[in-house]
Amino acid sequence: MLASDVLAFVRAALPPRPARLLEVGAGDGELAELLRRDGYDVVAIDPASATPTVRAAALHELQEPSASFDAAVAVVSLHHVEPLGESCQRLGELVRAGGTLVVDEFDVERLDERAAHWLLAHRQPVGREHHAEPADFVADLRDHIHPLRLVLEALSEWFRLEEPVRGPHLHRWELPPGLQAAEEHLIAAGRLPAIGVRLVGTRR
Questions:
Q1: What are phi and psi of 185, to 5 degrees?
Q2: Contacts of 115 (CB under 8 A, 6+ apart)
Q3: Superfamily for 4-109+146-203?
Q4: Please, which of 41, 75, 106, 178 could form a disulfide with 20 given CB 3.0 to 4.6 Å?
Q5: How many other β-carbons are positioned within 10 Å of the β-carbon of residue 121?
């Protein structure tokens, strides 16, 4: 289920309606549908999609005219895109000059054993299976997803990126509800890293 603060962030960053939007890594299409109800024209893509309202397409292969989108939204998806450089180039080609990029991500290089231990401990009560120790969990994630610094480096060729805003993210990993405040408290106390990242960019 889409977190209310994620939806609020995206809505606040988008250009006024009507506008044509591209959502990258749309999953089950929940965010795309909410934005359509808001009055946006949304093209939602996800290479693994089995949802009729989400096009099963990879970003770097998307067949759409250049500069045909007023904005693009990527919620926890750019760390997965392959190939990264080619995908970010295609994203830059698709968004018009002056268009908006809205990114919600997490920084895997800030994920440490403390964060992994907290995450895995809260997965147990809801029956989430895990067999890795915190160090192995961190190493596995770092091994197969793009670090935020490389994502931003690839995007910066095409977009002027605002300073990232860091915050909580672990509570969104299929954990029991109500853990956001606890994560925020631990971050403020220096006991957990703030791995969540939100930023807005403008097409050069």
A1: -65, -45
A2: 138, 170, 192, 193, 195
A3: Vaccinia Virus protein VP39 (3.40.50.150)
A4: 41
A5: 12
Give residue limits of the domains in the chain.
Answer: 4-109+146-203
Which whole number is the average pLDDT over 107-115? 98
| φ, ψ of residue 194 in degrees (nearest 5) | -90, 100
pTM over 0.90? The answer is yes
Please provide the DSSP assignment of 120-133 as one string.
HHHHGGGT------
* 8 Å CB contact between 61 and 93: no
CA 91, CA 59: separation in Å to the nearest integer? Answer: 7
Query: What residue has token string 């509570």?
Result: 171
Distance between first and last Cα of the chain: 33
Mean pLDDT of the chain: 95
